[in-house]
């Protein structure tokens, strides 16, 4: 089961490799990433773990592409092999002088082989050839001795003598460019390392030479940038054999220098001389073990030192980590797969439909989506903000309603104006109904003011409809045929503009009809007598008469009620002016050239002015209510519902029979390209999904 987990991740790694390795892949797989400065011993550690020489050696930056090294314990499927026995075997097989295993390093071994992802099916039994292939494959992308490339080489090694493990070897941190290396090589390498180790699923294997100061270790510094608490970093101390006499790494191991959750493991690799003398790894591991067992500082904890312990520990850390992260990975793969499947679906099928069916189906889609947004059925639209029909409703009931409500007739009408109009409209017959005329003149002026906000509403709604258009055609599927999308968009706007002309006329007519006839019989309008009574009441608030004996108010009819009742008889505003101008008429004076109602208003005039104001206000609020109600209805009829009903027909008329239909349905290059990418992603992720679902 355990080994199966690692091999699942290995398979995923292979499956996802075409996505460009660790850094670009949308799926972050658990892996152990090796970092350290140049010559700290990274390659040596990896070779010791594998037990074979297979990595390129030399001066300068030898590792110039990430090497994803998947170690597979090959016997795991046959028997119940456990971690401990494999670890022991690692020591035994590499260290023992057993004749059966005592083969020279380069000798072929039928039990152990390597395989590259870029050369599927080709088994490398000769590890020298593996080295050559790594060099060749590195140079292929980078050119010899020059740059680096972030595209990984995937190598899998099968052996019964290794623990299943996945490690990524990265270029060492370097300071000075050599040869024809680019001058910013240090930054390039650092960026590449950071891309790998900053992923939360990456375990950082920080390799540090024990004979240098740990506090100055570049690898550890870099690790701490992305893992400041040291929660997913494990330290390896190499070159313990090269430390000065009398010094040791005990303080570091005890966590007293730079503590790491997984701690540090000291190892000893072959030195330069050992390699020149072709010392085998087997001998090296044997010497490593005896070094730790016999060293006074380490003898008591020798089994926590050395390469076999390191391999075992890495294996268990990786397993633990995989077990923890697999459910997330599974979910991530499914979600990413779904995302690409959706995009692929939206890009539309590859098979080229006939141009006319493309036009037909895009117009149909567009019309349906437009109707859907208006009706509030567009589910994929944001829940964060109002859209479509809801926005229009907001414009109607909030924006427009408030605009109309804010119209106040009395910010334009002054009392003196009312008085002048009253005089004027009384004309030569200053008797009955003159108040009615003044009222009508003033109210009509005010009704005209409703036109401006109503026309403004039309243009607001136009903007909203255009906004919906943009929302619809910004979807990926419309990007496929840019010319057609453009044509639909233009025709839609054209159509709306035509409809706007008719809508505006209609709106102007509605306001005009309000203005043309003032319905003084409107049931909600204040009666003249009521208005009169209210004004009287306001001007002469009734003090209830007090009974001189009791000191309490006397019950009875208010005195002014009789007056109101009497005036009701003489018509709508009946008789306000009946005694008006009597004196002037009697004197027969000629009036001045500019005649204005001036001077102190008489009480009667004040009363009449106030009554007219009350009636204007009453009637105007009826008009406002009507306008707020009917203008949106008019817009629905002339613009919104009309566009919903007619747009498909109009688009078909304009575009379907079009001679340029071939031009209209030319597919976007980007769409073609993107479809290819999505197809590839879907294929890869489907495969990945199959792999994880087998766990
Ligand atoms: P890398 O650049 O980090 O991959 O380092 P290498 O593995 O190539 O090692 C650099 C040099 O240090 C080589 O000459 C190794 O032989 C030597 N070396 C690595 N580890 C040890 C060690 O533990 N002891 C000794 N004596 N030499 C080592
Ligand atoms: Mg190296």
Can you give a write-up of this model?
The chain is an alpha/beta fold and 695 residues long. It has 2 domains: 31-339, P-loop containing nucleotide triphosphate hydrolases (Rossmann fold, 3-Layer(aba) Sandwich); 355-534 and 601-664, Four Helix Bundle (Hemerythrin (Met), subunit A), CATH 1.20.120.1240. It has 24 helices and 8 strands. An 8-stranded mixed β-sheet has the order 3-4-2-5-1-6-7-8, with helices on both faces. Guanosine-5'-diphosphate binds at residues 36, 38-44, 57, 172, 238-239, 241-242, 268-272, 275.
- Give the CATH H-level superfamily of the largest domain: P-loop containing nucleotide triphosphate hydrolases
Major sheet details: 8 strands, mixed
Shape: elongated
CATH architecture type of the largest domain: 3-Layer(aba) Sandwich
| Number of beta-strand segments | 8
Low-confidence runs: 76-81, 93-106, 429-434, 556-582
Spatial order of the strands in the main sheet? 3-4-2-5-1-6-7-8
The averaged pLDDT comes out at 82
CATH topology value of the largest domain: Rossmann fold
- Integer count of domains: 2
* CATH class annotation of the largest domain: Alpha Beta
Write down the Rg: 46 Å
Structural class: alpha/beta
Q: Treating each run of at least 4 consecutive H or I residues as one helix, how many helices?
A: 24
The CA-CA distance between the termini, in Å, is 9 Å
Q: Kindly state the percentage of residues in helix.
A: 40-55%
What hetero molecules are in the model?
Answer: guanosine-5'-diphosphate, magnesium ion
Strand content: 5-15%
